[in-house]
Design a protein that fits this description.
By secondary structure, the protein is of the alpha+beta class. The chain has helices spanning 2-41, 43-47, and strands at residues 52-62, 71-80, 85-92, 98-110, 114-124, 133-143, 146-152, 161-170. It has 2 helices and 8 strands; from the N terminus they run H-H-E-E-E-E-E-E-E-E. An 8-stranded antiparallel barrel has the order 1-2-3-4-5-6-7-8. The protein starts with a helix and ends with a strand.
């Protein structure tokens, strides 16, 4: 019987290695896709530095009794292109582990120091109750150095929506 248990342990290790390998491949795929968008749509944007940095501070989960981590430090870099923005970043997610995200935002209205955009993208959530790659879409607003995002979660298992917030500043010319 002990030999069978050892074989089972080896199978578990093989499964874990396969899951980690798949996870790393998916992370790389998300960022390669974001870089592809930058390179193919605006070749000069891929070589230029980002225009704006976002420092994620936290989140508020709406319509839930579930205990989420709502202190979510993270850093996102955004390239503001002619017709849309491309953002990539990393943050401490609401399940207590690290996540990577890439998104594209379409400006709805913009002023000199404010904006309201619709956005969509992908985020990684390995080792949580979510799928490994989670699609997201919603609205984001910026006024001066503050930003807020709203992501509705229709039919969500644990919540109805998510509000995240933090600070932002220009980093380009």
């Amino acid at each position: 019987m002990p030999e069978h248990e050892e074989l089972s342990d080896m199978d578990d290790i093989d499964d874990a290695i396969a899951a980690v390998t798949l996870g790393m491949a998916l992370i790389v795929a998300v960022f390669v896709a974001a870089l592809f968008v930058l390179t193919m749509l605006t070749p000069t944007a891929a070589t230029a530095g980002p225009d704006r940095a976002y420092i994620l501070a936290g989140s508020k989960h709406l319509g839930t009794d579930h205990e989420f981590n709502e202190i979510n430090p993270g850093l996102f870099l955004t390239w503001e292109l002619d017709r849309f923005d491309v953002t990539v970043g990393a943050y401490h997610n609401s399940y207590g582990s690290g996540s990577l995200a890439a998104s594209v935002a379409y400006p709805l209205v913009r002023g000199e120091d404010w904006s309201v955009d619709a956005f969509a993208g992908l985020a990684t959530y390995f080792g949580t109750t979510n799928p490994n790659i989670v699609p997201m879409a919603g609205l984001q607003a910026r006024y001066g150095p503050a930003f807020v995002q709203y992501v509705p979660v229709p039919g969500g298992q644990y919540m109805d929506g998510l509000v995240s917030f933090g600070l932002t500043f220009e980093v380009g010319d």
